[in-house]
TrEMBL record:
Name of the featured protein: Serine/threonine-protein kinase RIO3
Organism phylogeny: Eukaryota, Metazoa, Chordata, Craniata, Vertebrata
Keyword terms, alphabetized: Antiviral defense, ATP-binding, Cytoplasm, Immunity, Innate immunity, Kinase, Magnesium, Metal-binding, Nucleotide-binding, Phosphoprotein, Ribosome biogenesis, Serine/threonine-protein kinase, Transferase
The keyword Lyase is annotated on this UniProt entry: no
Biased composition (Basic and acidic residues): 116-127
Taxonomic source organism: Sitta europaea
Compartments reported by the entry: Cytoplasm
Length: 494
């Protein structure tokens, strides 16, 4: 008996076993790449997490919740015994290796922070900072070099922030503590070996979560959403990608400050880390995340992707661009409104056959959206193609914006050019003779006036502009407000 209540073995439906099978995920991925099958999996026969009959349908979940509770209590007891045995003795023994939950793994309350208030975009105001390249500050007898003991000690203390977030440094960072190089190096050594030890202890666990598309913690999160009444039912899986799994759900009850859409899409950013390595470049160089990136562990970086998607969607929503509306973000799980109807997601532009009239309409709409995105949202989609545009209600909807960056990102213009190439090619092949070529489209969206008439030179000019911006950042500690030099870009309309 399936613990989720309904199990179905018919067709390519998504039973829980399927959802949790990495093997299946890989197969689906391959299918997608071969473009032999549509990647949207038929909605499951029955819901796999429901608000009803919780008692009978979620034994496994209840068991897991109890187990987590037990582990926590067990550790607390262990700590008490440890304390009792050690007493006031100068030499103490540690029970740490017997703990069920390694301190590095326990979710602190800080982890529970949700970004429900989507009006606040914490990255917007952040200005990049540069450190002086000279090794000294001041003049004459007031000169302070980087070898100064006090300055150096304080710097070392500040550098403790770079240790894994779970590394206990007490109040050290808050007070005016001066660590000698020797002490700092010893601490650093210790922090790193702790990190490695923690990784070793959890290797087995990590491995087992990697085999499932949705790990127990995520399932618990989803379960809580249903249990709280925010969602009515999670019906099944819409899409399994390399970096995310998307589910369909029926919305539940509205709260005082929130109306839940009747149908929701739940995007779960995968907590298996390998796939995220190649996305580093989007976030590492994004000045909005610059200060945070180095301090974060991989789990938090994945949350940052979800966070980024939320903020970008909110910007788009505010500009009136058709896109999913954010409902809530919990850790690496983003709930948004569902584009589609009755569990059937709207088709991607690549899968839908449009009349030439609709095709032309779609083209001009996208041209407008790209301009709005650039000018009003200050964003470049950076993965724009017929795969990430849905056709619904007679118009195009933009999705999948976790990788979107601001135009002044060190590779922002290159990403924009790639977006333009995808859009141009799609519509030129799709029989829209009015479609601008990628270079014209790039100028139309960015308002720049790059005159090169071939791909190679054009690309070179883009890179030169990006380099100019980076040099500006280096020299003035801030980026150019915009690339545009000759006023507003022309507005293209039907
Ligand atoms: P990925 O990074 O895996 O490409 P996407 O955000 O593109 O993630 O989502 C994958 C697929 O899930 C989409 O191609 C689309 O079919 C479906 N999907 C995602 N969000 C929604 C939504 N809000 N409404 C309907 N379908 C969605
Ligand atoms: Mn996508």
């Amino acid at each position: 008996q399936c613990p989720w209540g309904t199990s179905s073995t018919t067709s390519i439906s998504c039973s829980l076993a399927d959802v949790m099978s990495e093997q299946l995920a890989k197969e689906l991925q391959l299918e997608e790449e071969n473009a032999a099958f549509p990647e949207v999996v038929a909605a499951a026969e029955g819901p796999f997490i429901t608000g009803e009959n919780i008692d009978t349908s979620s034994d496994l979940m209840l068991a897991q919740m109890l187990q987590m509770e037990f582990d926590r209590e067990y550790d607390a007891q262990l700590r008490r015994e440890e304390k009792k045995i050690n007493g006031d003795s100068k030499v103490s023994i540690s029970f740490e290796n017997y703990r069920k939950v390694h301190p590095y793994d326990s979710d602190s309350s800080e982890d529970e922070v949700d970004w429900q208030d989507t009006r606040h975009d914490p990255y917007r105001a952040d200005k990049p900072t540069t450190t002086p390249r000279r090794g000294f500050i001041g003049k004459g007898k007031d000169i302070t070099t980087k070898h100064d003991e006090v300055v150096c000690g304080r710097k070392n203390t500040a550098r403790m922030e770079n240790f894994a977030p779970e590394f206990q440094v007490g109040d050290g960072i808050g007070m005016d503590l001066k660590l000698s190089n020797q002490v700092f190096n010893a601490l650093k050594q210790h922090a790193y070996s702790e990190e490695r030890r923690s990784a070793r202890l959890h290797e087995k666990k990590e491995h087992s979560t990697a085999e499932k598309a949705v790990d127990p913690k995520t399932r618990l999160l989803l379960y809580k959403m249903v249990n709280s009444g925010m969602l009515e039912t999670i019906t099944g899986c819409i899409s399994t990608g390399k970096e995310s799994v998307v589910f369909h759900a029926y919305g539940g009850n509205a709260t005082e400050d929130k109306v839940i859409p009747p149908e929701c899409a739940i995007k779960v950013f995968k907590t298996t880390l390998n796939e995220f390595k190649n996305r580093d470049k989007y976030i590492k160089d994004d000045y909005r995340f610059k200060d945070r990136f180095s301090k974060l562990n991989p789990r938090k970086i994945i949350r940052m992707w979800a966070e980024k998607e939320m903020h970008n969607l909110t910007r788009m929503q505010n500009a009136g661009i058709p896109c999913p509306q954010v409902v809530i973000l919990k850790k690496h799980v983003l709930v948004m409104s569902f584009i589609g109807q009755d569990q059937v997601p709207a088709p991607k532009l690549k899968d839908v056959t449009l009349s030439s009239e609709d095709m032309k309409k779609a083209y001009y709409q996208i041209l407008n959206m790209m301009q709005q995105l650039y000018r009003e949202c200050n964003l470049v989609h950076a993965d724009l193609s017929e795969y990430n545009m849905l056709w619904h209600d007679g118009k195009v909807w933009l999705i999948d914006v976790s990788q979107s960056v601001e135009p002044t990102h060190p590779h922002g213009l290159e990403f924009l050019f790639r977006d333009c190439r995808n859009v141009s090619q799609f519509f030129q092949k799709g029989g829209v003779p009015e479609a601008l070529n990628e270079r014209e489209l790039f100028n139309a969206v960015s308002g720049l006036n790059i005159t090169a008439d071939n791909e190679v030179d054009f690309q070179a000019e883009i890179e030169a502009l990006e380099k100019m911006n980076e040099d500006h950042v280096q020299n003035h500690g801030k980026k150019l407000s915009t690339f545009s030099s000759d006023g507003d870009p022309p507005i293209y309309d039907e």
